[in-house]
Amino acid sequence: QKMNNPRVKMNRDRRIVLVLVGITLLHGLLYVFLIPPWQHYDEPTHFELTWLTARSMGLSQANHPDLEIRRAIAISMREHEFFRDAGFEPPLEENGNIWLGISQIGNQPLYYYLAAIPVVLLESQGVVAMLYGARLVSLFFVLISVIACWGIVAELTAPGHRLRFLLPLSLALLPGYVDVMTAVNNDSVAAGLAALSVWASLHLYRRGPKPLTLLAAILLAGLIYFAKETAYPVV
Questions:
Q1: Which tens digits make up the pLDDT trace of 143-160?
Q2: Read out DSSP for the chain?
Q3: Total-model pTM
């Protein structure tokens, strides 16, 4: 009878979520700080757009490369042996077109506005510190996606079901997922918001259009529009 008490079930679910958050945070922090700077796919150019957004606080003014930050990033990439096995290094001439990879200028703005916050706060500490600050914003969305995964499973299973812990735990411990989701890129915000959108949609489907859930679903759809095109099909 005690196990069927709603308060007991709520406390058990709360403990599960806290454990999942703790495990995800520890695993994510390992990737944030142990993966060498710039060693994620297109991370230099995602960081470039983050820095441009932080400097201008508006993507309308962040549509043109800045040689100063490009040079700083390229020098840091050299220092951390980014080009060790590439067979070339970008030129650093005063008026040269410094190559950092595929440009991200023109991407949807949401992630870059969020990541710009720690970049502004850490600007005096150099590009590597700013990079780690932006990675922490990505880590936040790892946590969001794991919590949303728990919510999705909770909508589909009975209280106390093992999948409520095991599926989110599998996501939190999946190396490839955590690796990508802790990099400076807009995939992290897209995946986190997409997971929340699925959770809100399931909640609406199973429990009816309650005002707060309906408002959350509409708000998430709007945020996803400004996050990344790859998440649009979820909406």
A1: 999 999 999 999 999 888
A2: -GGG-HHHHHHHHHHHHHHHHHHHHHHHHHHHHHSPTT-STTHHHHHHHHHHHHHHSSGGG-SS--HHHHHHHHHHHHHTTTTTTTS------TTS----SS--TTS-SHHHHHHHHHHHHTGGG-HHHHHHHHHHHHHHHHHHHHHHHHHHHHHHS-TT-THHHHHHHHHHT-HHHHHHHTSSSTHHHHHHHHHHHHHHHHHHHHH---HHHHHHHHHHHHHHHTT-GGGGGG-
A3: 0.88
